[in-house]
Amino acid sequence: MGKVARALIWHEFLERSRDRWILVLTLLFVLLSSGITLYGKAGDMSQGEVVGPSLVTLSSLLIPLVGLLLGFDAVVGERERRTLNLLLSMPIHRWELIVAKFLGRFIPLAFAILAGIFSASFMMEDGYEAGLNRLIVPSLLLGASFLALGILVSSVVLRQATASSLLITIWFLLVFFYDLGILGALVITDGALPDSLCAGLVVANPVGLYRIVMIQRFGGDDFFSGFGMDAYIPGPGVEAFIWLGWIGGALLLSVFFLHLKRERT
User: Fold this and answer.
1) How far apart are CA 183 and CA 189, in angstroms?
2) Domain that holds residue 152
């Protein structure tokens, strides 16, 4: 990457690190993670049985939201400020601009995720804190997926208000209503949908993939076997392909739409 792209990464990092909404959500994530850990100490069950699955649920709600908020104005914000053409007139390729926007915004997102996980690990009893480290890489991939999705939407629309509305809708659809839609399809078809199709639909959603993978890691390899749900467990190759598809695919499409709109203007 060129000098302009590297400078843009640093600029994006500084700007996003001072964003009050990101700071508030980071603090909220830390407080809720710490609260879950303290609750795990007070309960009758072991702390490891309570904290891990609870943090998976919390992360699957907050991390996508933070990722989308970080990405929604990446391109459309420059367009509304009329600085996009000026930026593209510099010695920087369109793919460098998108990647720089992504990296500069991913760093504060990674800090927010690590702050929440490490705050919970710090309060865990001896012997349990190492288990929470298994959350780190999948959580970072989940955040990167929704950040890339936010940048893609920002590259397509022409107004920040439109981008924010779309991204909130996407958050509700993927986090809350996606699994309900699959369940509704099963009810309508009276369970006639093949298990492999349902499994594919669940793990195709990054939130569903994250939940399935992390529940398996905390519950053990035989957790889903007891429920007859072996088809829901993707292999490492499939898991990596899905993450790469969401992150890399969204960034490639962002470059394409940035090029398309630039040509039209």
Assistant:
1) 10
2) 3-264
